[in-house]
Amino acid sequence: MIYTVTLNPSIDYIVRLDQLVTGSVNRMSSDDKYAGGKGINVSRILQRLSIANVATGFLGGFTGKFIEDSLQSEKIETRFVWLDQDSRINVKIKSEEETEINGQGPHLSDNDLQKLDKILSELGKDDTVVFAGSAPSNVGNAIYKHLIPLVREKGAQVVCDFEGQTLLDSLEYQPLLVKPNNHELEAIFKVSLKGLDDVEKYARKILQMGAQNVIVSMAGDGALLVTKEASYFAKPLKGRVKNSVGAGDSMVAGFTGSFVDKKDPLEALKWGVACGTSTAFSDDLATMDFIKETYQKVEVEKR
To answer: Which of 149, 191, 212, 286 registers the highest number of CB atoms within 10 A of its CB?
Structure first.
């Protein structure tokens, strides 16, 4: 079974307006509300791929109820720890430019964390856990140094979708996949990447530090998968970007779901690119029909 862990879920409140004028009253042209959080996005795409999964983490209040109801309406199994505080709301303003206002989220107690420990300690070698996104501020991302080894000690695989030091810290536990983008890769190694050869060079450093597979996403320039055996470049697909927020999470879902099923990194890359690209070209996370259509267009070459 695949589990997704979202420590700080949200309601993503999408607001659309022609022009945002600060210091003035703005009237939206349309709005939507979605269950948000990187792990939750992974769960939603996995479900669209007909891959069973369990979403866990922390929820609370009327906002948490909305998130759980949204997931259950999509027939996603949930095992969240419930808090006596509201889950956060993130406001995403889509106008001439995308602007985000993200909530802080609840305060986690030791007792809350122990309840999540209990859920994760029940997993085993047939499970894969996707850890994605930031933690509430009172515990910080250092909490992953506790959660990831807890899961690995039980024999489960882990997928780690983090940035910066949190990504580097996770490599000690040999994650099945990490997915930095090219800018994050530059920041990690304090370099300027000049082309695919440079991207592959530094992705292989991540591999040498412990990762089993590394995907470097490069937005409109495609994606590069590096494994111990080979590297593969997925050519970019053309389209109008509508939703950059969930594209990376969708790529993680596509790769993880396919790899857990077939253990074929090339096929997993194709599904990852199909999911990520189709979400980028959608208002919300991509539909299965659009993912299938996009999959047929994905071109991958071995380097």
So the answer is: 286
